[in-house]
Design a protein that fits this description.
The protein is α+β, with helices and mostly antiparallel strands and about 450 residues long. The chain contains 12 helices and 15 strands. Helix 2 crosses helix 4, helix 8 crosses helix 9 and helix 8 packs across helix 11.
Length: about 450
Amino acid sequence: MTPTGHAPASVGQEALWLIDQFAGGSAQYTMLFAYRLRGQLDVPALEQALNQVIARHGAPRTTFVDVDGRPRQHVADELLVHLTPEPVPDQDEAVHHRLNQEAEHVFDLERGPLFTAGLLQRTTHDHVLMMVAHHAIFDGHSVDLLMEELEEFYTAHTRGRTPAVEPVAAHYTDFATAQHTWLQSPDSTAQLEFWRRTLQGATPLAPPPGRPPAALTSIAGDAVEFEMNTDTGALAALLTEERATPFMFMLAIQHLALARMSGQRDIVVASPMANRNDMALLKAMGYFVNIVGLRIDSHQDRTFRSLLKRVRGVALDAYENKDYPLAQLLARLGSRREGRPTALFETMFTYENIPARAEVWPCGLEVEAIDTDEVVVKSDLSFSVVSATRGFQGAICFRTTLYDREYIETLAAQFTGLVHETVRNPDAELDDLLAKDLAPAPH
C-alpha cells in the first residue's frame, strides 16, 4: 500500500531542508527532466498514466512539515497533474528557453507540490514532456523508474489492456525510517571512522586566484561539452588487465587533469552512489543518492597504470562504506572553506554507461531525453562522462563566478588529451603526463 501521512525525514532530506530554510527558497536543488515525444500523442492517456505512476509512489506526493525545528515527511493522499498542451515555436532555442524557465522554479517545501509536469507542443506530432521535482524527493534513478512505468501505463491505455506492473514493495519512507535505526549500529560507527581516517588532513581543490568570497555562493552556472573517440579495444584491454571499470579510468583521468591545472596531487573528488542496498528499493522513488569523497593522492605513483591501480582501490573502499550520509559526515568533520562545510565535496565526478538516446514505445511514440542547459550549479566543478557509440561524451559544469569559460575549455582539452595519451601508453610516466603538451584526442 502506498504511504500517506507523516514519516521521519532522511538525513539527506533534513540537510536539503536546512539549506532551503537558510536560503529562503532557491532553485539550486530543482531537478528538471524533459523528453521529446514524436508521433501521435494521446494527451489524456499520458496524463492519466502519469497520475497513475504518482499514485503508486509516495515520493512525488511528499512535502515537509516543521516539527520542533526538524522536518518530517508528509505524504499527501493524492496529487494530480494536468497536461494542457502549451504551444511553443517549433525551434530548439524556444524550447530550451522554456525549459530554462522551469529549471529556475523555486519550490515551497512546506506547501508543495514538489513535483510538477507540463507539456509543450511544437507541432501536432511533436511534443515535449517536462517534469520538475525538488531533489529532496527525487534522484536520477527515480527519473528512470518514472519513465519506465509511464511507458507501461501509457501503452496499456492506448492498447486497451491492463498495465503489467507489480505492487511497489518498499517506499522511501521505509528507507528513511531504517536509516535512523542504522545510524545507531556498529556498522555505522565503523563507516564513520573509515571516512574520518580517509579524509583527515585533506584540503579542497584550490580555486583560481583572485576570486572574491562571494563567488563561492553563487548558483549561476555554465557547461563545456566535449567528445572523445578512443581506441576502445586498447582501453578494454587495459581495464581487463587492471580489473578496473570505465568509471575508475575516467576518475584517474580527471585527477590528472585537475593536477595539471591546479598543481595539487592530493585531491578529493565527490561522486554520487545509488545507496539502494535493499533490492525492493530499486523500484522505489525518492532521494536515495549519497555523495562520497574519493581521495586520490598520486605523489607515490610513477606511471598512469600505477595511478589506475590506486584509483581502483580508493573506489572499492568507498563502495564498501557508501552508506554513511554525507550530511551527517559533514557535521562530524566540520571541514570548511569560506564558511562552507561542503568544501571538500565541491569537485564532482559522475559516469554513466548508457548515453541518452531515442527509443520507441510499443505504441509507436518516439521518446528521447532532452539535454537541459545548466542554469544553476550544485558544486564548484562537476565532470560528467557517458559512454557513446564511438568513445565517450562529457561535460564540465562550473560556477561561473569562480571559473572562466576559457579555463574550463582548457581543462576539457587536457581531459581529452590525457585519455588519448593514456590509452595509447598506459605505462606513461606521470611526470611526463603532468608536464608535456597534450595533443587533443582525435574526433
